[in-house]
Design brief:
five-stranded parallel beta sheet; 203 residues; mainly beta
Amino acid sequence: GNLFSQIPSASATTYGIAFNTISIVGIGTENKVVNNLIYNFNGGQGTHVGVNLSSAPYTKLYHNTIAFDDAVGSSSSITGLNINTTNVGQELKNNIFYITRGSSNVSGSRCISNSAGSGTLISNGNDFYITNSDGSYEIVTGFGTGLSSWQGAGYDVLSKNVDPFFTNPSLINYSPNNGVLDGAALAIGIVDDINNSPRSLTT
């Protein structure tokens, strides 16, 4: 795993991880983004995006944490994961989205923006925690502030909407301490975590 932090621009878009126009033919040649922490996007008034998938089919996001938690910051918009053009073969499993940073834009903040439509996106076993002082936020663009509508569309039926209670962000320890998340991850064959500690083989 890797740590991704940024000094955001005053007005431009700042990304943690970005895939743009990736030529992947199918199963067996996927891009896998695993055990990463995107954090410390402090300051800056531009648009902040944790992971951007633009024309990036067959990209798998497993066990990543995206935390936009600058207590005093406000950006034009905040997006944990942005998907556009296509989501064919994409998977989103066992990730934590934590967005508490404010947004000055009326469209606010969201964990996922999926302008590619339904496609073949598979999303489950994630935790979505998002809030801000003005209430202008959604878990998934177009699906409201809760999970129920998104789950009703067939996504994230086993996912959670709880504060993960990170261990100690000031020491870059974003391990979750909320018991609701203990054992909630899906078994997908990732054997260790970002700290090189072994993961359960069954969750």
